[in-house]
Design goal:
Layout lengths: L1 H18 L2 H4 L7 E3 L12 H15 L7 E3 L23 E2 L5 E3 L2 H5 L35 E3 L13 H4 L1 H4 L9 E4 L14 E2 L5 H6 L2 E9 L3
Length: 226
């Protein structure tokens, strides 16, 4: 009798597993991409790339993803004897998933649309470009609109030719309104250019100037492969 009961239990478990949907049966991919839920609060002065990376790491750790190495999606111009840095070269090879396990892009080429003449194939849009808490980020139609994402990059994820004070808030060390930075739109909405990483320039690099053009000092964070 015991053998019969035991066999029935095993059969029931196996049947349950077989009836699970693919999404239920498969483990959710860990988060490897997010939009910062809040900016550091000092405008475009992020403490340089190192400060921005640390900020990504801190937010990720608070969300339970601190076991990954995180990088801010930011470019910088050549300055002080240091070469230019392209955002696309900082984030690893992919793939990347949001806090809900949704695929953002399989690789760097897909993220930037390398094979499609600057037309990317990624999944960075308002429903999927979530913050580290798995929450949507305010965009066009919300009050306030905060869809501007600091990048300092062109649509292919490279720093354009130009000076740091007009492209990257002096390599992310300035909060002065005499400086500016390039931003993208996480929701792909607003204006004639809806690029996720290269839509327009800010009005300045102070916190109020970033807010004025539809932002809040937010940026993208990507995890390097484990």
């Amino acid at each position: 009798m015991k053998n019969v009961i035991g066999g029935a239990i095993v059969a029931s478990i196996l049947l349950t597993i077989m009836l699970l949907s693919p999404s239920q049966a498969q483990q959710q991919q860990p988060m490897s991409f997010f939009v910062t839920s809040v900016g550091p609060g000092n405008g475009g002065n992020l403490g340089g790339l190192a400060g921005a990376d640390k900020y990504c790491q801190t937010l990720a750790a608070a969300a339970g993803a601190g076991n990954r190495t995180w990088r801010a999606y930011l470019s910088t111009v050549a300055a002080g004897g240091q070469p230019a840095v392209n955002a696309r070269a900082r984030i690893g090879a992919g793939p990347w998933y949001n806090a809900k396990g949704e695929l953002i892009a399989a690789n760097v080429g897909e993220l930037h649309g390398d094979a499609d003449v600057e037309r990317d194939r990624n999944n960075i849009r308002k429903p999927s470009a979530l913050n580290e808490k798995g929450e949507p980020v305010k965009g066009v139609g919300d009050n306030p609109n905060q869809h501007d994402m600091l990048t300092g990059s062109d649509s292919l994820g490279r720093v354009p030719v130009g000076a740091g004070n007009v492209l990257t808030c002096n390599n992310w060390t300035s909060n002065s309104d005499t400086d500016r930075a390039l931003v993208g739109h996480h929701d792909r909405l607003g204006g004639g250019n809806s690029s996720w990483n290269s839509a327009h320039s800010t009005a300045g690099c102070s916190q109020p100037a970033l807010v004025k053009t539809g932002g809040n000092g937010l940026f993208y964070c990507f995890a390097l492969p484990q």
